[in-house]
Design a protein that fits this description.
Blueprint (H helix, E strand, L loop, with lengths): L2 H13 L8 H9 L3 H20 L1 H29 L7 H23 L1 H35 L5 H20 L1 H29 L1 H4 L2
InterPro entries: Acid_resist_chaperone_HdeD, DUF308_memb
Keywords: Membrane, Transmembrane, Transmembrane helix
Organism: Christensenella minuta
Length: about 210
């Protein structure tokens, strides 16, 4: 192997971060294409949204709920369109069923949320139950995988068990207190936005973001 090939590989490894380490900051870097101004603007938006979540948790919580509900409807419609546009020989009935279910759930949640203040709280409770269920399911999967990792001598088996237990506890707490769980998740997300935004802003000002172009 020549030195040029080695250098090219080294440069590629430095320029392309591992796909498994994707985060909001990495997504922001890719979206800006390495532009310092765009990176700074996105960073400021992240910090502002994080601060607004702390300043007006109920209003922002409802706003996020509406956004997720709209996402359900859009995703469901997209699945239905994808099913219709797929040739008959390659159609999957689950795609159509999935689209109809997501669309109906989104519409029902949106209609109820727009109907009364209690409907808005029910919207948040519904999404909290969904998040809690996924956390609980993920925790069960991680705990059940711990034995296999330990038997195989894989490093980090203890972390898998610890993560599974944490997910189990979080899932149970969110399901038992959905509204409290929703706002807790929201505040954690706000902290992540603020810290990530500050880090991205500092990175943009230092010029490192532009160097990664």
């Amino acid at each position: 192997m020549s030195d040029e090939t080695f250098n090219d590989n080294g440069q590629n490894s430095n320029e392309e971060p591992p796909k498994s380490r994707m985060s909001l900051n990495n997504i922001a870097r890719q979206a800006t294409g390495g532009n310092k101004t765009a990176g700074a603007v996105i960073a400021i938006c992240m910090v502002v949204i994080g601060i607004l979540i702390f300043a007006a948790p109920y209003a922002m919580g409802i706003g996020i709920g509406y956004f997720v509900t709209a996402g359900f409807i859009v995703y469901g419609i997209f699945e239905i369109i994808a099913y219709v546009r797929t040739p008959a020989d390659y159609r999957n009935g689950w795609t159509l069923a999935n689209g109809i279910i997501f669309t109906l759930i989104g519409v029902l949640i949106l209609v109820e949320a727009l109907g009364s203040p209690i409907g808005k709280l029910n919207m948040l409770s519904t999404f909290s139950f969904i998040i809690g269920f996924f956390a609980l399911f993920g925790g069960i999967t991680q705990v059940s995988s711990y034995g296999a990792f330990k038997s195989a001598g894989e490093p980090g088996a203890g972390w898998v068990l610890a993560s599974g237990i944490i997910n189990l506890i979080l899932g149970i707490l969110i399901i038992c207190a959905p509204i409290t769980g929703w706002f807790t998740i929201q505040w954690i997300f706000a902290i992540y936005l603020i810290i990530g935004g500050v880090a991205l802003f500092a990175e943009a000002l230092s010029g490192k973001l532009a160097c990664r172009k």
